[in-house]
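Thread title: Can someone regenerate the structure for this chain?

I was given the following input by a collaborator and told the matching structure tokens would be attached. They weren't. Posting the sequence so someone can regenerate them.
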Amino acid sequence: MTRSRPRASPDRFIDVRAMSDADVATLLRDLEIDIAIDMMGHTLDARIDIFAYRPAPIQVNYLGYTGTTGASFIDYIIADHFVVPAGDDEHYSERVVRLPECFQVTNSTSPVAERTPTRAELGLPEQGFVFCCFNSSLKLAPGMFDLWMRLMRRVDGSVLWLLRSNASAERNLRREAQKRGVAPDRLVFAPMVPMDQYQAQHRAADLFLDTLPYNAHTTAGYALRAGLPVLTYPGKSFAARVAGSQLNALNLPDLITGSLDEYEARALELATNPAVLQGIKQKLARAIVNAPLFHTDRYRRHLEAAYTTMWEMYKRGEEPRSFDVEPILD
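Best answer:
Regenerated them for you:
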């Protein structure tokens, strides 16, 4: 994500990279910030220690770290009913705030290239079935890779289209494919391209295979917006349920499976039954028009309602507690 939009959107943007955690916390207090939002959790270059100084009366874990921080100084986590089902609150140090539709939406106005590259230009077969997964190679686990290779052995002429990350990962994955009886050249790696072209090239694939235990998140949204079906098996953790949340927000339960066996069987059905796959694609195309997953303004109002409720509770002297945000009708 570039800094141009975050710089332009707020009334005031302050670059604190050169400041210590304690100095940033002091600055937040001086600015009388009411709600401080952490979007990084325990990820690379995160600065969660700023929040340990309690610079704001309300502190929220949102979007960038899909799991509990385990920190007593973070009051809330933004979720929805799918990513954190009822009864799972006990696994979170934060109070769970559930948005009514989807905790993460996809920007429906970001530019997508009009032209779809030909399969030949992308190094893909003109006729073979294209399984796709543009998740980071860090998300590729042996068990799911085993399953994908079984699919490829059963679907003649198919390829697995992955995102190129580094030469070592590419070599290792090709070697592991060969060990599982799949020719290494049936793994095709897409190079990094500008974002509008990246989104457009999804149209050349047939089915996006989601990963476990860490789902596609933003990546799933890009695929779905391009009209590419995403098949997922939700796990138990927040990070393992995000793709299912997005599909739920598109009313596409047919792509949410209940077990790895069902995931494999469903993938095989979609790869070998063109009519069924086409029906799913048509349903997805219809859903894109008005689906909550792409309704960014309504999402904004739901998120603002969540923050308003947090603030009103604080003003009344109440302790943070979990709550559901009521749906806002258009």
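Residues 4-105+296-324 form a domain with the Rossmann fold fold (CATH 3.40.50.11380).
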